[in-house]
Each structure stands twice: as C-alpha cells, then as structure tokens.
Design goal:
With 301 residues, the protein is an alpha/beta fold. It folds into two domains: 25-108 and 237-297, D-Maltodextrin-Binding Protein, domain 2 (3-Layer(aba) Sandwich); 114-233, Periplasmic binding protein-like II (D-Maltodextrin-Binding Protein, domain 2). It contains eleven helices and twelve strands. The protein has helices spanning 2-23, 37-55, 68-77, 87-96, 147-161, 165-168, 178-187, 211-217, 248-264, 266-273, 289-299, and strands at 26-31, 59-64, 82-84, 101-108, 115-123, 138-141, 171-174, 192-197, 226-231, 235-236, 239-243, 279-282. Strand 1, helix 2 and strand 2 (59-64) form a beta-alpha-beta unit. The longest helix has 22 residues, at 2-23. It starts with a helix and ends with a helix.
Length: 301
C-alpha cells in the first residue's frame, strides 16, 4: 500500500511538472486595442522573433485584443503571460486580483520623465479652443479602461470646469480606442476627445510619442487639423506586467531582455512603444498607488 501511495504521489508530481513545462512552451503576449490589428502585429513581430531563443520557449504568440479589457481579462484568467498596460488597466487587475501580475518595467521619456499626459483635442475647423467652448457639447473618451482616455480626464477635469463631467457636457461616449477616437473627432461625432501624448516636443508633431505621434507617422493624421484644448496633470507611464505564476527564470530573462532592448534593437523598441523614448526603468506596485486609488474611488475597479 505504501509503495502504491508513493508511486501515485510521484506520478502526480511528474504530471504537475509536465503541466508547468507545457505552460511555458508558448509565451503569450497581449496587445492592447486602440490601433488597427495589422499595425499592432507588425510592430510586435520583432519580439515574436527574438524572445523564443531568449526565454527558451518554442514560440511566442501575439494576441491583439479588440479593446483594453480583452488583455486585462486574459491576464486575470492566466491565458496571457505578459502585456504592456496603461496605469488604469493595471489598476483594474490589481483591484480584482493583486496576485495575478506584477509591474516590472515602464518607459522613460526623452526628457527623463516617467509620465505622459491625457491630451484633449478638437477639430481646428470647429472653432473650439478652450474648455469653456465645450460646455454643453459632446465629449469622447477612448476606452473605459484607458488611463489617459478616460480615468484621468474624469478625475481631473472637474477641477478645471467647476462641475462633474456628466453635468458640464451634453453627452459623453467612447470612440473605440485612441486611434478611432481621434478620427471620430475629425468626423464630428464628438466635439472633442481625449487621447494621449508624451507632452515632450511640439504638438504640431504629435509630440515625441503617443497616439497622435503614431497616427502622424502612419499618415493617418495631419496635426494642422487639430487643436489642443486641455492637457492633464502628469500620468505615470503604464507598466509592462508579467504573470506571477510564470517561472522565475522566465521572468528574469524577459526583464533583462527588455531592459537591454533600447540598446540592442532601437528599431524594435521604438516599434513596440510607438515613438521616441529613452529607456525602460524598473517599477513596483507602489508607482501606481495613486491610479489604483483613483480607479477604486471612481469606478470601483
């Protein structure tokens, strides 16, 4: 009987080991929505090509979600191993299950800062130039899980408009991601909308990084067609997160590879980040405490 018990226990350990090995044959990267799928897959192809050898896995799979929540749910459910999130997206995960993922890295802007801005834009030919011009008009947000495209404007705008967002504007809605939001503003669906940018460099160039810059570089946007109506306080740059259940050696190898990426392959670094950045730097959950608290207060996680 004892031999049978020991044999069964050994078999279970072997099966558990096999399951763990199976789990990391494919390293699964989630990619946030907000940009068309073909562009996202093309931008992340360099990671898909390089990481298998670095991590010792058979392949790297890319999962471009239709929206932010698709990646968030994948990380919470354990079907994704890594993703780069906005701070509010990370806050949603931290509030739902603080043990699911850990933030490990964030980007450093060209001026050395580790933050960016929510940028509210309007079509230049609309005649809208200030927040006062927008009273009683339609405001568009990018995505309900976007930090710059929703959470920070909802939290910060009342200080500048003297009223809750729902009372100041005639209506609000979502544009289906940052890229589409800007297009909807230009079409007149919204009188203004919130997207994001580094705030470094010139507005006429779409700043040094962010959605506006990416759209300019893809030929989708002429900045002469837009005006900046409002800019938020500085927002913590979003984190690269890894699933906590991954083996430690995989996490260590991944973080080391990413920290070296700006030097080892500057083109890949620029492609996945969508513009000009200086580097990656280490982060911990403490870096996002204010955003987690803001999300908890505003939308309950």
């Amino acid at each position: 009987m004892l031999k049978k018990i020991l044999f069964a226990a050994t078999a279970l350990v072997a099966l558990a080991g096999a399951a763990a090995a199976e789990e990391i044959k494919d390293f699964r990267i989630g990619i946030l929505g907000g940009e068309n799928e073909a562009d996202r897959l093309r931008n992340f192809k360099c990671l898909q090509d390089k990481l298998p050898a670095v991590l010792g896995v058979e392949k790297v799979s890319l999962f471009p979600a239709a929206d932010y929540d698709g990646v968030i749910q994948g990380l919470l459910g354990g079907t994704l191993d890594e993703a780069e999130l906005g701070a509010s997206g990370y806050a949603k995960i931290a509030l739902a299950n603080p043990d699911a993922v850990s933030p490990v890295l964030t980007t450093v802007q060209t001026d050395g800062s580790t933050g960016y801005y929510s940028i509210m834009v309007a079509a230049k030919d609309s005649g809208i130039k200030t927040l006062a011009d927008l009273k009683g008009k339609k405001l568009g947000f990018a995505d309900p899980d976007s930090t710059s495209g929703y959470l920070v404007p909802v939290v910060s705008l009342p200080d500048d408009i003297g009223a809750p967002v729902k009372d100041y504007f005639a209506s609000t809605g979502f544009g289906g991601g940052h890229e589409n939001l800007v297009l909807e503003v230009l079409k007149g669906t919204f009188d203004a909308g919130t997207t994001f940018g580094s705030g470094v460099g010139e507005f006429k160039d779409g700043y040094t990084s962010g959605n506006l810059r990416k759209m300019v570089e893809k030929g989708m946007l002429n900045m002469d067609d837009l005006v900046e109506v409002w800019k938020s306080p500085l927002i913590p740059n979003g984190p690269i997160v890894v699933r906590n259940a991954l083996p430690d050696d995989i996490k260590t190898k991944f973080v080391a590879f990413m920290k070296d990426l700006p030097k080892s392959d500057a083109a890949c670094f620029s492609a996945i980040e969508g513009g000009d950045f200086k580097d990656f730097t280490d982060v911990t959950p403490d870096f996002y405490k204010t955003i987690v608290a803001a999300r908890k207060a505003q939308i309950g996680g």
